[in-house]
Amino acid sequence: MIHHRIAPTASYADLSRRNFLVNSAMAGGGLILSFSLPFGEGKAVSAESFAPNAFIRIGTDGQVVLTMPYVEMGQGTYTSIPMLIAEELEVALKQVRLEHAPPNEKLYANPLLGVQATGNSNAIRGAWKPLREAGATARIMLISAAAKRWGVEIASCRADDGEVIHTPSGRHLRYGELAAEAAQMPVPKDVVLKRPEEFKLIGTPAKRLDAAGKVNGTAVYGIDVRPPGVKIATLVQSPVFGGRLKSVDDSAARAIRGVRQIVRLDDAVAVVADHMGAAKKGLEALKIEWDEGLHAVLSTQDIARELEQATLKAGAVAQKIGDAEKAMADAATRVEASYHLPFLAHATMEPMNCTVHFRGSECEIWVGTQAIARVQAMAAKAAGLPVEKVVIHNHLIGGGFGRRLEADGAVRAVEIAKQVDGPVKVVWTREEDIQHDMYRPYWVDHIAAGLDKDGKPVAWVNRFAGSSVIARWLPPAFKDGLDPDTTEGAIDLVYELPNFHVEYVRVEPPGIPTAFWRSVGPSHNVFVTESFIDELAAAAKQDALAYRRALLDHNPRAKAVLDLAAEKAEWGAPLPKGRGRGIALQHAFGSYLAQIAEVEVAKDGSVRVHRVVCAMDCGTVVNPDTVQAQIQSGVMFGVTAALYGEITLKNGRVEQTNFDTYQILRMNEAPAVEVHVVKSAEPPGGMGEAGTSGIVPAIGNAVFAATGRRLRRMPIDTGALKA
Questions:
Q1: Three-state DSSP class for 572?
Q2: Backbone region of residue 329 per phi and psi (left: phi > 0; alpha: psi in -120 to 50; beta: other values)
């Protein structure tokens, strides 16, 4: 069971978790284990002295409560992470209840990111050891309490199914009966975790704990929250980024039934109403004049030209192996290519929304966010309040993909709420959501390789230009002109390349904001590297699979997934005319993944992806069902990008407005996706984004196999294929 519902006051009882926490603390008699992430020194505390942290709480009823430092946005985190606790604590998964963690960077920071955020496919990676240690520590303290009560040796007792058993006598006590005594036990400094062969839950398929609520409608997303007296608002922002509001005639809008207020901001106008229908009608009735500012004539072509010019200049060296310049000069053959990848929107199913009650001296916020502490800090700044005066409640997210790592939606809502008496829910229209997204950067790569007389690469040189999201979002992580996100997938390749040189040139585009987008850096870099390695195979007149295999003798994990994918996809088997298979291989987010796409190119140039075969080595698998679902989801997201994904600017404006002009893959277009997992005892790798980054080059390479036409720009230009 997941405890989704959160509320500001006792009167909002059906959504109140605060009352639950307070009542639990006052009841006493429970075991509260408090842990920081990464796992540090834990301490058992009395219920009265409870302080929020990443913790397990076991009540006298035996219920295990996990305060979750990560957020659920469809990726299965709220099932897989409780499995870690339940495994070591020896309880059934259904006994673990989740509560959203409050904002607290010190206590709830993701140990791999250093900030309180869910992203970069590392929730399981970050929780793998700390949460298991938390469960094991609780188990040991419960066993110690039982042994003390019985006056027996600890070694004669064991835990199983939520109770402690004295093996010689068969006596047993439920965890709830031991909670108060366990709270008085010393916290063990070192705990021994289970060996993989001892796992009961980890590695087994577990049904999603959040599925029932999402099916029956009881699950609460940010957009569902309705505190008493809430008004609904929607907004229009300057159509050109950086523009300002010049004037607005709101007389017609005010005359619409249900419209209560018009809120003017420096660069936006919001209509506050009794319901969304009235707010939208009011918005359409506004007559607005904008000062469009410096970017009123900006186009995508302007940005692309700037990036192309940037690749002619030296950049920060991301990785250097050997002497690529000399090896290139001595090579028998030289291959060069330039690649372009477009801006992309997130287009999450749940549009941007945030509910705010600004009370002057304090502010309360309800939202679904991937970075709750960041939202709190930026909302406090917008409200002009100390951080501690901003109470923020997190909820399930209806699609994140990196979009909800940003706080701009909450900041807008606070700016509007400051002019509204009572709570207001700000919901963006789909058009506003797409035209004022924060986009995956546009990238341009110029890449070259030198081949020896046998076609083997002896030199690899890549220089690419584009925006660094990390430099804005987490400045300390951007050092010496580089950051790990922007370069992942461009360096530390799976292939053996003796002379290797990669440079990055940071260029921040004018007039359009950039942000994380599902698989971010690898979504760009894997496309380039896997498209180019395919080009090298073609230049060497060698099979694309065999060419890759010959470069993987030093990397058995990469070779294993490649071989498995090839076997399952029946690589080399005949295909009908107009069809082709393409490969992509990557090591990203801590996981190895090979993907083979089978596509068909019609006479009109349209591309249909019929089948995708994936082979994955993601280390230890926590929940096989989640692995399957994440790869399938990531593939669909990537196929959408390959076939349709592109945000373009004209006269400073985003041209795409809704799903008619920013198309999403339809159900009848979805390929069959097969996922094959290599058994591994390595620590878990990331899953949420891996499937997205590899599928785009696999499709591009399949198009080449079918047509002989090489794709170096995305999305696929059907007109060029038809020609």
A1: coil
A2: alpha
Residues 6+ apart with CB under 8 A from 32: 44, 45, 46, 47, 50, 55, 56, 57, 58, 183
Q: Which of 398, 391, 376, 590 is nearest to 484 (CA)?
A: 590
**Alpha carbons 367 and 393: distance in angstroms, whole number:** 6
Contact 157, 175 (CB under 8 A): no
Q: 3-state class of 341 per DSSP?
A: strand
Burial class from Cβ neighbours inside 10 Å (0-12, 13-18, 19+) for residue 621 reads buried
* Domain 300-343+439-722 belongs in CATH node 3.30.565.10: no
Q: Are the CB atoms for 94 and 45 separated by under 8 Å?
A: no
C-alpha 602/C-alpha 600 separation (Å) is: 6
Q: How many H-runs (helices) and E-runs (strands) does the chain carry?
A: 21, 28
Query: Could you give the CA distance from residue 672 to residue 612 in angstroms, rounded to a whole number?
Result: 6
pLDDT tens digits, 432-451: 999 999 999 999 999 999 99
User: How far apart are alpha carbons 579 and 711 in whole angstroms?
Assistant: 16
Q: What is the dihedral of CA 685, 686, 691, 694, to 10 degrees?
A: -70
Which part of the chain has CATH 3.30.365.10?
13-208, 222-294+352-427, 300-343+439-722
- Give the three-class secondary structure for 610: strand
The span from the CA of 701 to the CA of 565, in Å, is 15
**Of the candidates 34, 18, 14, which has an alpha carbon nearest to the alpha carbon of residue 26?**
18
Question: What is the rounded average pLDDT of the residues 658-686?
Answer: 97
Torsion sign (Cα): 637, 638, 644, 647: positive
Asked if residue 482 has pLDDT above 60, the reply is yes
Per-residue pLDDT for 46 more than 80? Answer: no
* Alpha carbons 49 and 47: distance in angstroms, whole number: 5
β-strand partners of 58:
31, 64
Q: What is the DSSP secondary structure assignment for residue 715, as one 8-state letter?
A: S
User: Which residue in this structure is represented by tokens 């606790």?
Assistant: 85
User: Cβ neighbours of residue 20 under 8 Å, at least 6 residues apart?
Assistant: 3
In 3D, which of 620, 447, 472, 411 has the Cα closest to residue 525?
447
Q: Are strands 244-249 and 287-291 parallel, antiparallel or unpaired?
A: antiparallel
- The pTM of this model reads 0.93
Residue 44 has pLDDT above 80, yes or no: no
Query: Cα(123)–Cα(327) distance, rounded to whole angstroms?
Result: 41
Q: CA-CA distance, 5 to 24, in Å (whole number)?
A: 16
User: Which residues face 57 on adjacent strands?
Assistant: 32, 65
Structure-derived torsion over alpha carbons of residues 311, 313, 314, 316, reported in degrees to the nearest 10: -60
The answer to whether the CB of 577 falls within 8 A of the CB of 588 is no
Q: What residues contact residue 73 under an 8 Å CB cut-off, 6+ apart?
A: 118, 368, 370, 396, 397, 398, 399, 400, 404
Contact 461, 447 (CB under 8 A): yes
- At the topology level, CATH places domain 13-208 in Aldehyde Oxidoreductase; domain 4 (3.30.365)
Q: Which amino acid type is present at position 445?
A: D
CA distance 460 to 532: 10
Q: How far is the C-alpha of 62 from the C-alpha of 230, rounded, in Å?
A: 38
C-alpha–C-alpha distance, residues 492 and 489, integer Å:
7
For the cut 90, the answer to whether the pLDDT of residue 30 exceeds it is: no
DSSP letter at 393? E
Residue 29 class from Cβ within 10 Å (0-12 exposed, 13-18 middle, 19+ buried)? middle
Strands 500-506 and 424-427: unpaired
Q: Does domain 222-294+352-427 have CATH number 3.30.365.10?
A: yes
Structure tokens at 631: 């790869």
